[in-house]
Design brief:
Blueprint lengths: L13 E3 L2 E3 L3 E3 L15 H9 L5 E7 L17 H16 L4 E5 L8 H4 L4 E2 L8 E4 L2 E4 L4 E2 L2 H20 L4 E6 L4 H6 L14 H19 L4 E5 L13 H13 L5 E7 L4 H9 L3 E6 L13 H9 L4 E4 L1 H5 L3 H7 L43
Parallel strand pairs: 3-4, 3-14, 4-5, 5-10, 6-9, 10-11, 11-12, 12-13, 13-14
Antiparallel strand pairs: 1-2, 7-8
């Protein structure tokens, strides 16, 4: 371990709406499959998130706004009283440890299976996931999703708004609407999955309509200052084919900017890409950027610090890191001290349940940690 503290903008205090953040590091939302079968967060999740409360902001893992939106087994949800109570235990623990949390709202769309949710998945068009999907009985072929009717679309918009209200009731400071990585909102954005000819398809204006309606409904429900949106321009996860990436986000980002949201979160952001620079110019508020660290590769020795600093220099305001926070509960201290980074021991442990690979990663000795800054409790 080096003894000299690292001088970096990553450790500067900042604000996000009414929240005071002790640093610019965000724990990105990553599914960990530790909920019950019906989506209730378990007590071990309170331990896991409280361990990572030194992050400037924690964005908790994707939670479904309704039953048909469930993606995989043991995914968290936020559409009934039991879900709210389970998440309340988590937010209470994080708040007691000095942290701040948003909750990501995610509807899987075609990324789902009847053996998991008990329901046929829905999507903008009946285009199945072009790969197998994990279910309670193992990997199975994806099913053809049911094309959503206009009534389905309106009901889903209402479900997102209700889920946002539930999240606030559960103690979250806000929510992140997931419009990325091949899930339902992203499916509406992309040509490969949205083959509709009605008002929610066809042109770019039609394909962004559902996402904009969801975001506006969520903002109306809890206030725009409590709402962020996650996007993934050009990402091909879950068989996505956007087709006209630049045109989509040139239309979507200004439409979302008009809502006055807390932030926009760009996944796998590359500061050298013209589209990232264009998004930064078009977005008037806080921009969270998630750097490209290489999924499945070893974590960089600096834990993503240099990649984060490059994005700050390119105009990002906050830096979201996923796997570095999973393997390093005290990541902020490790980056500040230039201390060695824990590697993710086994990617499979991320999804298997229990303490192993979840709450048992080692932390630095207490004597070597810098004294944490204490902030006044401002914000929701």
């Amino acid at each position: 371990m080096t003894n000299a503290a690292v001088d970096s903008r990553l450790f500067e205090p900042t604000t996000l709406g009414a929240l005071r953040l002790p640093n610019r590091l965000v724990m990105a939302p990553l599914t960990r499959n530790r909920a019950t079968a019906d989506g209730v967060p378990q007590p071990i999740m309170a331990t896991y998130y409280a361990q990572r409360a030194s992050a400037g902001l924690i964005i908790a893992e994707a939670s479904t706004p309704n039953a048909v939106g469930q993606t995989y087994p043991n995914i968290t949800a936020i559409h009934n009283d039991a879900h709210v109570a389970g998440w309340r235990r988590v937010t209470d623990a994080v708040r007691a440890a000095g942290g701040r949390m948003f909750l990501q709202l995610q509807h899987g769309g075609r990324v789902g299976h009847p053996d998991t949710s008990g329901l046929t998945p829905v999507a903008p068009s009946p285009v199945p996931l072009p790969e197998t999907i994990h279910t309670p009985t193992g990997h199975q072929e994806a099913v053809v999703p049911r094309e959503m009717t206009t009534d389905d679309i309106h009901a889903t918009v209402a479900d997102f708004a209700a889920a946002a209200r539930n999240a606030v009731d559960a103690g979250f400071a806000g929510v992140e609407v997931h419009a990325a990585n091949g899930h339902l909102l992203h499916q509406f954005l992309a040509q490969g999955t949205n083959r509709r000819t009605d008002a929610y398809g066809g042109s770019v204006a039609g394909r962004i309509r559902f996402t904009v309606e969801v975001v506006r409904a969520v903002a109306d429900a809890i206030g725009p200052e409590r709402v962020g949106v996650r996007i993934s321009p050009g990402v091909t996860f879950n068989g996505m084919e956007e087709g006209d990436t630049e045109e989509i986000y040139r239309a979507l980002v200004p439409a979302l900017a008009d809502v006055g949201l807390a932030y926009l979160h760009v996944v796998f952001a590359d500061p050298d890409q013209p589209l990232f620079q264009e998004i930064r110019r078009a977005w008037p508020g806080t921009l969270i950027a998630n750097p490209v660290l290489g999924w499945g590769r070893p974590l960089p020795a600096d834990g993503g610090r240099l990649a984060g600093e490059r994005l700050l220099a390119a105009g990002a305001d906050l830096i979201a890191l996923g796997r570095p926070f999973l393997a390093n509960p005290d990541l902020v201290d490790r980056l500040r001290l230039g201390a060695p980074i824990n590697q993710v021991r086994d990617e499979g442990l991320m999804y298997t349940g229990g303490e192993s690979g979840y709450t048992d990663y080692p932390t630095l000795p207490a004597a070597s940690r810098p004294r944490a800054k204490t902030l006044d409790p401002v914000g929701p």
